[in-house]
Design brief:
By secondary structure, the chain is mainly α. It has two helices and no strands.
Length: 79
């Protein structure tokens, strides 16, 4: 895969245990999903985390960063 201006998309299955009592994804799990997508994008580009670290690049993970999430459309598991 090469870097382009095309958006990266990754299918994601939402599991029951990812949700709260209302059946909506618990807010903190979005950061897990972001990190999973970033890991997959880097792998698709041929740049897995271990390779970046080997090159001396610092890899910051989403759970250690300030993130703004738009919760305007809730995510729910498949029915």
């Amino acid at each position: 895969m090469q870097i382009t201006d095309k958006p990266f998309r990754m299918p994601l299955r939402v599991y029951y245990e990812d949700t709260d009592a209302g059946g909506v994804v618990y807010y903190a799990n979005y950061l897990v999903y972001f990190e999973r997508a970033r890991t997959q994008l880097l792998n698709d580009l041929g740049l897995p985390y271990k390779e970046l670290e080997r090159r001396g690049l610092e890899v910051r993970r989403a759970n250690r960063c300030l993130a703004t999430i738009d919760h305007s459309t809730p995510t729910t598991p498949p029915r």
